[in-house]
Amino acid sequence: MKRNLKVRLEWRSCERASQTLNNPLRQRECQTEPPPRANFSATANQWEIYDAYVEELQKQEKNKEKQRTLPTRKEEDKGKKKTVVVETQSDDITKVAKVAKIIERMVNQNTFDDIAQDFKYFEDASDEFREQEGTLLPLWKFQYDKAKRLAVTALCWNQVYQDLFAVGLGSYDFTKQGRGMLLFYSLKNSTFPEFIFPTLSGVMCLDIHEKLSHLVAVGFYDGCVAVYNLKEESPQPSYRSTAKSGKHTDPVWQVKWQKDDMDNNHNFFSVSSDGRVVSWTLVKNELVFTDVIKLSMEGAVSEGPEGPQPAMMACGTSFDFHKQIDFLFLVGTEEGKIHKCSKAYSSQFLETYDAHNMAVDTVRWNHFHPKVFISCSSDWTVKIWDHTIKTPMFTFDLNSAVGDVAWSPYSSTVFAAVTADGKVHIFDLNINKYEAICQQPVVAKKKTKLTHIEFNPVHPIIIVGDDRGYVTSLKLSPNLRKKPKEKKGQEVPKGPEVEIAKMEKLLSLLREPSGNAHI
User: Fold this and answer.
1) Helix (H, G, I), strand (E, B) or coil at 278
2) What percent of the chain has pLDDT over 90?
3) Residue 432: other Cβ atoms inside 10 A
């Protein structure tokens, strides 16, 4: 009886084991859960982007400090670590500053996208229905809050970076002289300057080096000249003239870079109301000056202490160097005369033109024709000259004091002028020899005076400065930059020879016995 019972128990346990269930098969992709998701949207401006970068920077600094603060290090090593942390933090801040500047440009370009599109693509369709007249389309307006009460006294485009230009700020009123400012703006960011240099005296003129675009020559109201280097972070100029080093005794009205000398030293020229035209050479850490010519009322000049001294000095107001002939240059004076001078022959003027009844504000050689130059004055006139003839070829009366005039870089017959009544006048002598093809006010307030104008070397735009510290950029309509139409099967000739021929054709008509053209 006992044996039979034992067998039954073993058989039951074996039966239970046979009834065990198998685990179900599962696919691998079902073993993980998907990450949580959420939809988020917001409007990001430049400040939020900047705060995000700063927050990320602080997190990185905390992680660096945790890794560097090890318990086995000595106290001296900890001090070293702290200095290293400060250095890396400053380096990171500079990186953030560069990134923030790029982001700022992107935000501004998105904000002013309609203006950017006009700058690139817009062409005034109404020009097709006007044979001769054109218009100016306002683009960006450049303003710096700390320069509100200063006037724009100088404008200059950068020849290497064509979107960058320099603005000199000061005052033409001798009773309101004080501080000045040198600003650099880019078309990529109209809200804030790229570089800012405050000055103790008002900036009267400036010129950017044609090849070394980081060098900027500046002339001041107190008679000093200086050279700023944009590669250096210092707000002070790299070179500056002093009373010991030949500083002018009156305001400097114009500066111009010239070719390097025989020793490959950079040099520029300046003209001032003290009657001196001075050559400045950058030698090591100082400016070395040489008096090129001294202006006088009678026409005689002096070569130095041994030469003849003039009875009364004339006041220089503007000058320009010939584009092809290196030694030849023109000097405008406060008495309304223009002198043709030579660097090599400084004892006498080559020619004197009785140009204007008031001070010559600007004189400029034509970019293409080697004989032609233009001048303007506060006597309301703009005159075009052939330097081989003592009388003007063209005279234009603009009914207001003319602040500045400039030749266009794309045509030998196109020039622009600004007047004290807030208007921009653009002429194309090839289209109309008597009237402007565009005469347009560009300032909101009637009492605002325009002071300077410059053509962009590449783009079809101009920049205009006024006496309230504003700089306005304007796009030229197609009629203001007309090109000859191509005929079927014929290519239109291009190049400087064509531009010289256009101007020469006009001059040949005026050289006939019928007389000069006075408008």
Assistant:
1) strand
2) 38
3) 13
457-481: average pLDDT: 91
Q: Which amino acid is at 125?
A: A
Q: Whole-model pTM?
A: 0.76
pLDDT in tens, 389-408: 889 999 999 999 999 999 99
Residue 60 pLDDT exceeds 60 = yes
How far is residue 349 from each of residues 289, 300, 399, measured CA to CA in Å? 21, 8, 32
SS (H, E, C) 17-33: HHCCCCCCCCCHHHHCC
**Tokens encoding 437:** 């093809």
Q: Which residues contact 252 (CB under 8 A, 6 or more apart)?
A: 204, 205, 219, 220, 221, 223, 224, 225, 270, 271, 272
Taking only the tens place, the pLDDT of each residue in 116-158 is: 888 888 888 887 887 788 899 999 999 998 888 899 999 999 9
- The Cα–Cα gap between 62 and 65 comes to 5
Task: Specify the CATH superfamily of domain 124-482+493-518.
Answer: YVTN repeat-like/Quinoprotein amine dehydrogenase (2.130.10.10)
Q: How confident is the model at residue 271 (pLDDT cuts 50, 70, 90)?
A: very high
Q: What is 383-446 written as a DSSP string?
A: EEEETTSSS-SEEEE-SS-EEEEEE-SS-TTEEEEEETTSEEEEEETTT-SSS-SEEEE--SST
Q: Is 457 helix (H, G, I), strand (E, B) or coil?
A: coil
Nearest to 436, CA basis, from 404, 402, 397, 471: 397
Residue 183 banded pLDDT, cuts 50, 70, 90: very high
Cα atoms in the Cβ-side hemisphere of radius 13 Å centred on 233: 1
Token pair listed for 336: 């309304």
Show me where the domains of the chain are located: 87-122, 124-482+493-518
Number of residues that this document lists for the chain: 519
Q: What is the DSSP string of 25-73?
A: P--GGGGSPPPP---------HHHHHHHHHHHHHHHHHHHHHHH--TTS
DSSP character for 348? B
CA distance 179 to 440: 32
Residue pointed to by tokens 């490959």:
264
